Amino acid sequence: MLYTTEEEKIYTLALIHTPGVGSVSVRQLISYCGNATEVFRSDFKKLIKIPGIGEKAARTILKKEAVAVGEKEYQDCRKTDTQLHFYTDDTYPIRLKSLYDSPVVLYSRGKFDFNVNRTIGIVGTRQVSEYGKAVTESIIRELVPYHALVISGLAYGVDITAHRACLKNGLPTLGVMASGLNMVYPAAHGKTARDMMEDGGLVTENALATKPDFMRFPARNRIIAGLSDATLVVESGRTGGSLITVEFAQNYHRDVFAVPGNLNQPQSEGCNQLIRENKASIFTSVEEMAEAIGWHTNLSKTREVTFDTGSPAPLIFDGFTQEEGQVLSLLKQKGVMQLDELSWQSSIHLNKLANLLLNLEFQGMIKSLPGKKYGLI
C-alpha cells in the first residue's frame, strides 16, 4: 500500500516513536494489522500474538501516547519543507527496499533522486592527509562524466572534501546524517550542507530534532552503504567508521574499493589492510572501477542515464516458467539490474532467484555482470 493519507503517515511516525518498537517490529505490526492506523485500533490479545511484540510493547502501543508525537513530527516536516519517504512509497530508495534493516522512513531535503542509475559512496578518515584530499578531488573530477550521485556522511576529512569537490564540479551529492535535519553536525559544515540543497541534499532516518548521539553513527553508515552501488574508502586507520561502512556494504553484497596508500602513513593502514585481506578491490581509477561494477560507458549528457541495450528486436518469452518470464521481462525493461533490486521487483526470494538466474544463464538468455548485476544477452 502507499501512504496516501495524512492519518496513515502520522500513525506510522507514531509507531516509530513508540518506545520498545524498532523498525523490524514496525514492519511486523503493519504487516499483521494491515496498516499503521489499525495497529493502534487493535486490542491487547491481537498485538501480543504478533511475532516480536511482547506484552510491554503492546501496552505501550495501546496507551497511544506516541500518536501526539507523530502528529507534531508530521506537521513540523510540512513547515520545514522536509520530505518523508516511507518504505512502501514510490519515492523510497529502491536500493534500500530489499535490505533487512532498512529504515521505515527517511527524512530528506534538497533536489535529488534516490533512484538514479549510478551511486557511489565515498568515505574515509576524519584525519585526512593532503594525499587523501588530492585523491578525493581527483576521483570526483573523474566521476563527472558518469553523472553519479556521490554519497557521504558530511563529517570532517574525506567526507566533506568529497561533498565540496562535488559542488565545485557540478556533481550531485547527498549527505547522510546521524542527527535530525534540523541539526547539521558538525556545525562548521552548515554552509556546505545548505549549498548541497541546490544539487543534491541531506537525508536521515532520525526525527528532525535528533541529536547526533554516538550510537547513531554506525546506523548512519549502513544507509550510506545501502544507497551506494559501491563504497570507496579513500583513507582509513585500522579502526573507524569507514570500516563499519565496509562491513555493511559486504553484508549487502555491494562492491567495496580502497585506495592504496603509503605504508608509513597511519591514514592508509585501513585501506591497505582491506586490500590485503581481499575485503576490498584495489582502486586505481574511476574508469576501472566503473567497468568492474557494471556502469556502462555510453555516457549521456543528461542526468537521466539509460543503459545501452543495443536496441534489440522484440523478445518473446514463450516456453519459460512464469517466474522466468517475469525476470526476463524486468531485464528487458530495465536493461541491467542488481541482484537485490531484481529480487525486490520480482518478489522472488534471493536463494530461489539465484538458482533461477543460473538456469537462465545456462540457457543463454542472460549474462552475469560484475557487481552482482544481470542483463539480457
UniProtKB/TrEMBL annotation:
The Gene Ontology biological process annotation of the record reads: DNA-mediated transformation
Cite the DprA winged helix domain residue spans from the record: 321-372
Output the SUPFAM superfamilies linked to this UniProt entry.
MCP/YpsA-like, RuvA domain 2-like
Q: Which domain of life is it from?
A: Bacteria
Smf/DprA SLOG domain spans which residues? Answer: 85-293
Per the UniProt record, one Pfam family is DNA_processg_A
* PANTHER family given in the database record: PROTEIN SMF (PTHR43022)
Any idea what this protein is called? DNA processing protein
Instruction: Give the originating organism.
Output: Dyadobacter helix
